[in-house]
Amino acid sequence: MASTQAAAATEQAPTKNPTLLAWVAKMAAMTQPDRIVWCDGSEAEKQRLTEQAVKDGTLIPLNPKTRPGCYLHRSNPNDVARVEHLTFICTPNKTDAGPTNNWMEPEAAYTKLSQLFEGCMKGRTMYVVPYAMGPLGGASTKIGVELTDSDYVVLNMRIMTRMGKAALDMLGDSDDFNRGLHSTGDVNPDRRYICHFPQDNTIWSFGSGYGGNVLLGKKCLALRIGSYLGREEGWLAEHMLILGVTSPKGETTYIAAAFPSACGKTNFAMMIPPKEYAGWKIETVGDDIAWMRPGPDGRLYAINPEAGYFGVVPGTNYKTNPNAMETISKDTLFTNVALTPDGDVWWEGKDGEVPEELIDWQGKPWKKGSTEKAAHPNSRFTAPMSNNPVLSAKANDPMGVPISAIIFGGRRSNTVPLVLQAFNWTHGVFLGATMGSETTAAATGKVGVVRRDPMAMLPFCGYHMGDYLQHWLDMQKSIPQLPKIFQVNWFRQDKNGKFIWPGFGDNMRVLEWIVNRVQGRVPTQETLLGWVPRQDQGLNLNGLDLPAEAIQEATSIKEDEWKSELKSQEVFFEQLGTKAPEALMLQRKLLIARLDG
Ligand code: SAT
Ligand code: MN
Description:
Layout: H1 2-11, H2 18-31, E1 35-38, H3 43-55, E2 60-61, E3 71-73, E4 87-89, H4 94-97, E5 102-103, H5 106-117, E6 125-133, E7 142-148, H6 151-160, E8 162-163, H7 165-171, E9 178-183, E10 193-197, E11 202-206, H8 211-214, H9 217-233, E12 236-238, E13 240-246, E14 252-258, H10 265-269, E15 281-286, E16 290-294, E17 300-303, E18 308-312, H11 322-327, E19 333-335, E20 338-339, E21 345-346, E22 357-359, E23 365-367, E24 380-384, E25 401-409, E26 419-421, H12 425-433, E27 436-438, E28 450-452, H13 465-475, E29 484-488, H14 507-518, E30 525-526, E31 531-532, H15 548-555, H16 559-576, H17 582-596
Parallel strand pairs: 1-6, 3-19, 4-5, 4-10, 7-9, 9-11, 14-25, 25-29
Antiparallel strand pairs: 2-3, 6-7, 6-8, 10-11, 12-16, 13-14, 13-15, 16-17, 17-25, 18-24, 19-24, 20-21, 22-23, 26-29, 27-28, 30-31
Bound molecules: sulfoacetic acid and manganese (II) ion.
C-alpha cells in the first residue's frame, strides 16, 4: 500500500520538488487515501469541488439571485469554534512552550496522532493544497502545503490564501515550506488535536472541520508557527488588523490594531466614518493578522498574509458594517448561519424584519420568537478580500505598509478607559502585555469572563509568553522609527449593562485623535495610565449624541478598579516566572508607585 501511495503521489504531481514529493508520499502512506489530488487553484477546480461538495451535502447552494456564488455549510454541532484545550505546542522542552500553552513532547505527539491518522483517509481523497501566506514573491511571504481530506477546507483555503500553482511555483525546489496535515477524522471531540511542531515547521490537525482548527494557514501557521519564526528571524507575527486612514488633505496613516477574536477587528478595518468626517477614508489592508518587519527606511512594515476574511456573522448589518455586507453579497461561504425559505441566509442582528420561519444553523426548523439562536454566535463568513469595497491597493503590495501606530484593545466592561497613549515603546509593550479581555464565542468555553490576553495572542503565541514579550521589547532596537502605541476599549458598560460608547463608525473619532497624536498635532493630558485626550483639544465629539456624563464615564480612570486590575496582572506575571521581562516588571512598579503616590 505504502509504495502505491508513494507512486500515486509522485506520478500526478505538478512539481519535482523532492522534499515535497517525499513528504506527500510519506503522509499518504500513513493516511491511505483512495486518491490524491494536487490543487492548482483554477476556476475549473473550484467549480468541480463546489459541485462535488453540493452533491455530498457539505455545501447548500444559496439563491443565485440574492446571493450569487454563495453557499451554506453546517458544521458538526460539536465543532463550531477553536478548541484551545485541544491545541498543543510540541517543543522538545516544556518550558519552550511556556505556561500559557498546552504542551506535548514532539515524539509523543507524533506517535499519538499517527495512530489517529493511520488509514484515516481510506475511501477519501487527499487534497494537496499549496498556498502562500502573503503577496506572491514578497520577502515576508511564506509557503505552506496543507494535506486535507475535506473539500470544505480546500474551498476555504482557496479564498483565505493565494492557493495553487502560483504558490507551488514560488516554492520551486526549496524545502522551506510549512508541512500541514489535516483530517476531519470522525469529528469526535475526544479524538481532536491541533498540534504544532515549530522546530519542524509542521502542523498536524485531527478530528475537526472548523475554521481556525483546520484552515492551517491562519492561526496555526500565520500566528503560532509564525510567531516562533518571527522571533528566530527578527519580525513580529501578530493578531492584528491593518488599516489605512486618509485625511481630507490626502495624508494616509497606517495603523495595526490587536483585538481578541470576535471583538470587532473586521468592523474596525472596514469602518465608514460618520457624516461629520466627510473627506476621510478608511481602507482595509487586513482584518485579522499582521506580519511586521523593519523596512530599509527604519520604519516597521506590515503585510496581511491572508487573501480573504473569515469573519463573525452575527451582528453584521448595514449599520454596523456596510462594507462587510457588500463583501459577503457574492462568492462567499457561510458557516453555521440560518437559512431562509427563499434560499438566503439569516443571522441575529441582520437588517430588516426577523423572518417568521427559518432553518437554524443545525438544520432544524426555527420559528420567530424562539429562545434558541437561529445562527450560531460564532457563525462565520469566508469571503475574498477582493470583494471588499474599501480594500487598500496596498493589500497586494509585497512590501506592505509602514505602520505609524499600534493599538491594543480588549473587551472590558469596566476599568480600561476609551483611549490612551503609551509614554514610550516599553510602556506600550506593558499595555499590550497586560491586556485583559472578556471571552467570546470564538473559542469553546465560558463566555464573558475576563482573562489576561497579552496582545490578543494568548491562544496564538507559539512559544513561551515571557520570551514573546521580551522579543517585543527587543524589537525596539531594530526599528529606528518606532510606531506610537495606544490602548483602546470600546466595550465599557454603564450601570445597566449598556455599552456607553457607540463604537463602529464613531470609533473614527478615536482614530482621528490617534492620527493627530502620531503626526504630533494635538496636545495631550497626562494621567497615571498614559496620555489621554484633553477636554478642550481632545476628541472631536461634534454630532455625537452622547451626554457629557457618558463621555466622562467611558474615559474615567477609577483607582479602586485599577488596584484590583493590578492584582490580576500580578497573577499573570507570576505565571511567567523568571521569564517575566525585567523592563515590564519595572513598568509595573512605576504604575503601582503612581497609584499609591
Ligand atoms: O476560528 S478562527 O481562529 O479562524 C477565528 C478566530 O477565532 O479568530
Ligand atoms: Mn482572529
